[in-house]
Design goal:
1 helix; alpha+beta; elongated; three-stranded antiparallel sheet; 61 residues
Amino acid sequence: MSKVSIEIDTTTTYAKKNTTNITYINPQATNEKLRQFAQMLVALTTDSYVGVTKITKESVI
């Protein structure tokens, strides 16, 4: 079973770079929906959206 998380990159009004990780993302969520979610989440803050990265981890037996 794979574990999916996203990493959201933002910048503050003082040009400081921030990264926020969100784990336990639905593996069936499309990249478009994940990008939209990240943008909407950042819109609740004073930071500026830079990008989002989808991370998938799988166990290798």
